[in-house]
Amino acid sequence: MALEAVPALSTTSRSIKKLTKIRKSRENRQSITILAMRRALSDRLSEACAASWQAVPPRMLRRTTRCTARVAFARQAAIYFAHIVFAANLTHAGGIFGRDRTTARHACSKMEDRRDDARIDRAFDALEPALKCWLESFASGEAS
Q1: Reported pTM
Q2: DSSP state, residue 92
Q3: Domain parsing of the chain, residue ranges
Q4: H-helix or E-strand spanning residue 21
Q5: SS3 (DSSP) at 144
Q6: Closest CA to 74 of 86, 84, 88, 60
Q7: Contact 78, 47 (CB under 8 A)
Q8: Are 143 and 45 in contact (CB under 8 A)?
Q9: φ/ψ of residue 127, rounded to 5
Q10: Domain spanning 14-140 has what CATH number?
Q11: Contacts of 74 (CB under 8 A, 6+ apart)
Q12: pLDDT tens digit sequence for 97-143
């Protein structure tokens, strides 16, 4: 094919706008993906932290039944962490564990009441900043 047959690249304002729109679309999709990954990570961190704190298997927190008091307490703590530490709304925080918004509100209320106990308050005071630190560490890829 002759070189003269190849159309010249034109940099019209229309083509520049189209390329800019494509680049912004890719950036938006990438930022949405990153936000979704951070949200999923925060969900798993709140679940794992509460489960290990109460020495119950994390899969027990997702059961549809209440299970034992220890499992219910761990689930309430995980919902509390998701809502307070990671700023998930109550609908999402409850939805992580198959519960509705009102159950999540009840769980957060119970955890606030239980913070009157000095041992639980100290545990939460230690766990909340650790959860934030872990999220930032894992999200940035620094953890190994």
Answers
A1: 0.75
A2: H
A3: 14-140
A4: helix 13-53
A5: coil
A6: 60
A7: yes
A8: no
A9: -75, -35
A10: 1.10.1750.10
A11: 50, 51, 53, 54, 56, 60, 61
A12: 999 999 999 999 999 999 999 999 999 999 999 999 988 888 776 54
